[in-house]
Structures are given as structure tokens and as C-alpha cells.
Amino acid sequence: MNTDTQHDAPLDGAEILRRARALAPVLRERGAEIEANRTLPADVVELLRATGVFRIGHGPATGGPGLTSPEQLEVIEAISYGDSSAGWCAGIGAMGGAITNFLTPEATRALYTGPDLITAGSLVPAGRAERVPGGYLLSGHWPFGSGVRHADLLTSGAFVYQDGEPWAAPDSPHDHDSMQFVVRGSAAEPVDNWDTTGLCGTGSSDYVLNDVFVPEGHTFSFFEPRVAPNPMAWSDSFMRALPGVPLGITRAALDHAREVASTRYDGMAGRSWADSWRVQTELARCEAEFNAARKGVYAATRRQWEVLSAGGVLDDLSLTERGAVPLSGLHAVHVARSVVNRLYDLLQTWSINHDSPMDRWLRDTAVLSQGQIGHDVVLESVGAYLLGQPPKVRIGLGIH
């Protein structure tokens, strides 16, 4: 397989979005297979790669289309409309474009030989990196490596040691430094422990690395950009498209519920479901909540991009504007879970079989709510920031 390029000509944002939307029905048909496989089937990975989704974070300097954050978000939303797991893996796998802003240009050229390479990994500093001549020996056991089985590259967090002792750079504010280490995906040993309620097809298993040599230049920190200032050179940039996953799921569930309701007849009441006050009001209420959540995500992301693309920095945003990006993503996850639960109840026994997409969306949104964009730590961190206190997690706010 040649992963250097999958296209004869550069793809623009409109074409990538068109391909993503065209792939969605195929992904919906493959949903049960994706879930049963517990990771994306190899041919599904290549179908995703052919859309151009994995290059959406790359700018022209690294062979990408230079999409804005709202445009990237729209692509992930379109894929998630087809399948939740595919959408999540697409969003995670596309973070390579963001990472190139934190690597040296030399490392980017060596690692990202083409914009369609898939990146996976775990940012948690669960590993140990021993300093050796020319680089590091990296070992560890990392959790939640979404897409690790089909990744071309892995980024993994680790604490640094020298001669077996904790190490920190002379100018470091910390007693013990950690950083990110990029290695080939083939270096990882996946652990077969991804057997979950939902998002089963993401293959978000643990993985192990044992004494893998990482050259000095193939390391980075999300808090130290190594390129000229640009809107993607911020620590939150790789997360901005992920709210597309709950948005895509919610839109798919709403469309499915409307289709079912328009074709069902209530024999006991002697009328169609479309004539039911209960069905009408619940569908409308769910639509309203989705529309508000979606507008919130896109408005916050567009405002952020507007400031950054004009040469500004995130500190130029007001406190509420800066907090709106992670909060709107969190809200989209919560709305997805609420709407899907209510539509599941609305459709009653047409929801309960495993071959019903409602059953899968119910479980997918339950698991999505426990992840990095849907967890209460987002509330805690943004709340602290709004009160002038240090946030527990800085990365979602783009604080260097």
C-alpha cells in the first residue's frame, strides 16, 4: 500500500466533504461489521483515507488543503453521520496535521512523508523514555489508543529519565519533564482489551512499546510550536474537529426517527405516527436542541478561527469566547446522549434490536460521554479558567 499519496491532484475542502458525505451510506451499511470487528476493517480504513479526511489538518506546506477548523469539523460530522466509530477514528487519525506544527521541519519531513498518513496514540505520559545518545529508548503501556491497529504513526506521552533518574531540562519549570514521542505504528503491540458498550469499532485498545529508539528530533510538546504562528499552532487544534462526532450521530438519529415516524401506523389509536402530538412535539424538541448545540459549536469555532487567522492569539478572545470552544463540544456530547435516549424511547420496540441503528447510537453516545471531549473534567477546567484559576487540563483551552 502506498500511503504517500492517494490522489492524482490535491483535494480541496469541498471535494473532501463531498467524498465524506458520499461514503456515509456505505459506512452505515457496514456498521454492524465495524462494531463486531472491534476495530475498523482494513478496507474501511482505506475508504476513509481515499476521502482525504486524514489530511484535513495539514496546510499547504505539508501537502494538505489548509482547511479551517470549521471545515475540518464539517468533514468529521459527515463521516460520523455514517458511523460513529469511523467518525471518531477519522477525527483522531487526522491529528497528524496539527502535530506537524510542534515538530521540527526536519522531523516532519522524515515522519510525515505524505498528508494521508494516519496518526494514533495516547497523550497520557504513561511511558518511560530513557535518554541515550541521539535520542531516547521508549517503553510503556498506554490506554485508549483509538485506531492503533491501523495507524501509520503513533504519538505517546512519557516521562524522561537519564541514568534511571527523573530528568528535566535546565530551563524547565518542572522537576520531571514529560513530552510526546512519535514512532512508526508498526512498533506498537496492541493489547486485546477493547470490549466495550459502545464505539466498539474504534479499536481503542491499550498498546505497548518496548525499548523503541526515538531520535531526539522526533519528540515534541503541544505547548511549544516550532513553526511560524498560524491558527493550527495551538495545543487544542487537534481537538477542534472532534465535536463533529456527536453532531453527526445526533443528526443521523433524528433523520432515522423521522423516517420511522413517517411510515408507522398506530393501530390502537387508529392514526399514523405522523399525526401523533407526542411524536410531533418530541421530534421538534429534539431538533431544537440539536440545532442550538450545532450552532454553538460552529459559532465558537468560527470565532476562534476568525481571531487566529487575522494574526491574533487565543488571549485576544474574551474569557467566555475562549471557554466556548471546549464547552460547546462538551454540550454537543451531552445533547447527543439526551436526544438519542429520547428518540430510542419514542420509537419503542423499533429501537431495541441489535440491528437497529438506534441501539448502536444509544451505546455509542454513552461511551462518547466518558471520553476526552465529553467528560466533566472539561467543565472543571473551563470553570476554573473563567474564575481566574489554573485549569486542571490546559490543552483543551489552548493554554501554552
TrEMBL record:
Q: Which domain of life is it from?
A: Bacteria
Among the GO biological process terms of this entry, one is:
L-leucine catabolic process
Protein name from the UniProt record: Acyl-CoA dehydrogenase
Which key words are in the record? Oxidoreductase
Q: Which residues form the Acyl-CoA dehydrogenase C-terminal domain?
A: 246-368
PANTHER family per the UniProt record, alphabetical: ACYL-COA DEHYDROGENASE, ISOVALERYL-COA DEHYDROGENASE, MITOCHONDRIAL-RELATED
MF terms from GO for this chain are:
3-methylbutanoyl-CoA dehydrogenase activity; flavin adenine dinucleotide binding
Would the keyword Nucleotide-binding turn up in this protein's UniProt record? no
Domain spans labelled Acyl-CoA dehydrogenase/oxidase N-terminal: 26-107
The protein's organism comes out as Kitasatospora setae (strain ATCC 33774 / DSM 43861 / JCM 3304 / KCC A-0304 / NBRC 14216 / KM-6054) (Streptomyces setae)
